[in-house]
Structures are given as C-alpha cells and as structure tokens.
Design brief:
It is built from 16 helices and no strands. With 422 residues, the chain is mostly helical. The radius of gyration is 23 Å and the shape is globular.
C-alpha cells in the first residue's frame, strides 16, 4: 500500500508550517544576535572622543573623566561570574533581554542630568554589556553547534563595526545634538535589540524545559559528576589568554595618541590611526573564527597573533615614523585575531553551552580586571621613566606571555577532562 495514501492530508501543511516557523525563528535569532552585538561596543567607544567636552561642561577632574572608561571594565569583572548562574536559572534569552533593557536605561540615564547620572548610567552599561559578553558565545554554541565559527564572526563584525562607527560620528553628532544627545542616541539601537529579543524569550521556554530534562538525563548517565572550571588547568590557560590580550588592547588604545604625539604627529592624525586600527581588525574578526573552528588546534593562529603584536610594537618603537600606519595595521590585525580566538576558546574548549558560559564568565571576570589595570600600569611606567620605551617593551613582553599561554589554550581538549582538573 502507498504510504502517502495513509498520511492524513492535513498533516503535510502542518509539517511545512513547523518548518517555516523554525526557519523564521532561526532568522529572528540571527538578527537578534546582530543587534545585541552592535550595542556591545558603540556605547563605550562613543565616549572617548567626547571626554574633553564632558569634562569641561561638568567640571569634573581628569581622574573622574578617566573613570568613564575604566568603570565599565570593572563592572565586567564583577558581573561576569554571575551571568552563567542567572542564565541557568532564568534562561539565556531572558537574561539577554534584561541586559538589553538595562543597557537602554543606562544609556538614557548617562545623558540625563549631571555627573551623578553620568557615572550611574555608565555602571549600568557595564553590567548589561558584561552579561552579553559572557552569554553570547554560550548561546551560539547551543543554537548553532555546526556554525560556531561563522556566527562568532558575524557578531564580532557587528560589534566592531558599530564601535568604529561610534568613534567616528560622536564629535559630528555632538556638534548638532550636544554630548548628551550624541551619547543618548545609542538608546535607539539598544531599544531595537530589546524589541527583537522579546519574541525570542517567549519562544525559548519550552525549548529550555526540554534542554533541562536532557541535561538531567546526561548528568545521571555520567554519575552526576561536574567539574568546576575554576579547577581546570585548561580553563586557566584560556583565562590568561583572555586577560593578556585584553590588557594589551586596552593599554595600546588608551595610550597610542600620546605615544604618537611624542613622535611629532598631531592629535588628529592619532585619531585617524585609532580608526585605522579598528577598521583593520574588522575582516579578521570574521575570518579567524571560521578558520579556528575548522582546525584541530589553533596554535598556528596564536603564533600569528603574537608575531603581529610584536611587529606592531617593535615597529612603533624602532621603525620609521612614515610607516606608522603599517605598524598600527599590524597591531590591529593582531588584536582582531586575539579577541576572536578568545571568544572561540569559550566554545571550542567546552562540551556544553552551560560550561561555555561558565568558562566565559571566569575568563572575562579575570581578563577585564587585568584590562582595567593595563592602562594604569602603562601610564605609571611612562611617568617613572619619562619615556615610552619601557611601556612599549612591557606590551612586547605581554605578547610573548600571550604566545606561551596561548599554546596551551589552543591545544585540542576540553575543560574538566584534562589531568589535574579534579
């Protein structure tokens, strides 16, 4: 008998409807990830070009003005370890929705009144972005297990492209809207992210309940054994890699204009070099995750990253002033490689989405503590020595350390399964 004759005719349209619904939900998730990625850098990079204007209008000190860039990093360090716990309790989508809401409130509050709301809003930004930083790699590992590299590249490009755009348009926007309007305008982007995540939260509840049952069965089949990422040597290598690359990047970006000024280059030229650096890393943040996902290990990419960092730093230290754009491009490409690898390690070195979130939370908490200290140490060495040679050599030493720990982080293996993790 023909099996097609036995199939009730109403079931075929229902099956097609389910496929269409799943396809729509998948595209909605991709767009949601793009919007979340777009608001991870722009609210932060939009502040730097306006620091002088903000400081002058509010009458705050240089120290307080500098806090506007370090406060979010400190919030990243404080909040990151809690993100996996909240995701396990409430669901990743729900926590990301809350993060988008907090981000919108933070952006608006930052531009509302005076110095008090400026710093309170900035702290809220740090909380929201920390949650997104930790949970997006976990979400991608869970929902795109066969496309981890591609999706990591997509959201990294979205994040860095909006960050570069924010750096460039802040001053022109402030000339027409004032600094409050220029900073507050980014609330429109975070509000769009919020709207896109609303249906994703509603649609994730049944899936999350099913995932919880599967997780329970898996735990029972393995004897309920669970290894903390904090006890894993491999997790610490990934954490150090994340921390060292963050320290290098933030110290380099914070002090590059001052370094170039002492070489006789103008502040305007230094600003263009920062934009060039961000543009140089854009294609790299898309390509490297795809390459990393296809490799048995990522040691070659780690080596390439450190060579690029060293070439950029030693070029600035010893090379010709005429070749400054080349040294900046090399350092920018190295930064794109390093950041992309750090994000990929959260997925490649873990077995599950929850473990990926826990590793991400651990690495970003420790990593951003180092990142917050990096610019301070760089400036201290400059004040102590009266020049830039020692601070730049410090960055070269960080690049060498990054190579050492990166070789371990890039080795094929999984957190909790190596000797010494128990």
């Amino acid at each position: 008998m023909n099996t097609r004759e036995m199939t009730p005719p109403e079931e075929l349209p229902l099956a097609r409807q389910d496929q269409d619904t799943a396809r729509t939900a998948g595209w909605l998730l991709i767009v949601g990830i793009l919007f979340i990625g777009a608001v991870l850098r722009a609210p932060l990079t939009s502040v730097g070009p306006l620091i002088g204007t903000i400081k002058g209008e509010l009458g705050i000190s240089n120290t307080l003005a500098g806090t506007l860039t370090t406060l979010p990093l400190l919030m990243f360090a404080v909040i990151s370890p809690f993100a996996p716990k909240w995701a396990r309790k409430y669901g990743i989508e729900a926590v990301l929705l809350a993060a988008a809401a907090i981000l919108t409130v933070g952006i608006l509050l930052r531009s509302a009144l005076g110095a008090g709301t400026l710093f309170l809003g900035t702290a809220l930004l740090g909380v929201a972005i920390a949650l997104c930083n930790v949970l997006l790699p976990s979400l991608i590992k869970r929902d795109f297990p066969a496309r981890i590299g591609l999706m990591t590249g997509v959201y990294s490009v979205s994040m860095n492209l909006s960050g570069a755009a924010a750096s460039g348009i802040s001053v022109p926007a402030a000339s027409g809207l004032g600094w409050k309007g220029a900073l507050g305008a980014w609330a429109a982007l975070s509000l769009l992210a919020l709207l896109f995540w609303l249906p994703l939260v509603n649609g994730s509840r049944k899936a999350r309940q099913g995932a919880a049952r599967v997780s329970a069965v898996s735990a029972n089949s393995s004897g309920g054994k669970s290894v903390s990422v904090w006890k894993s040597p491999l997790a610490w290598k990934v954490t150090l890699f994340m921390g060292l690359q963050s320290t290098f990047f933030y110290a380099f970006v914070a002090w590059l204009p001052a370094v170039l000024n002492t070489r006789g280059l103008s502040a305007e030229y230094a600003g263009w070099m920062l934009s060039l650096m961000q543009l140089a890393l854009l294609p790299i943040t898309f390509v490297v995750p795809i390459l990393a996902a296809r490799m048995a290990n990522q040691r070659f990419l780690v080596t390439l990253t450190c060579v690029l960092f060293l070439a950029g730093i030693l070029g600035l230290l010893l090379g010709s002033t005429a070749l400054v754009p080349l040294w900046i491009i090399l350092a920018g490409i190295g930064g794109g490689c390093a950041f992309s690898l750090a994000m990929m390690f959260f997925s490649l070195r873990t077995r599950s989405a929850q473990q990926s979130a826990e590793l991400s939370g651990m690495a970003q908490s420790f990593g951003y503590l180092l990142a917050a200290a990096g610019p301070i140490l760089f400036g201290f060495l400059h004040d102590t020595t009266g020049g830039w040679t020692t601070p730049l050599l410090l960055l070269a030493a960080i690049a060498v350390l990054l190579f050492v720990v990166g070789q371990g982080a890039a080795a094929n293996g999984f957190v909790g399964e190596e000797r010494g993790a128990e």
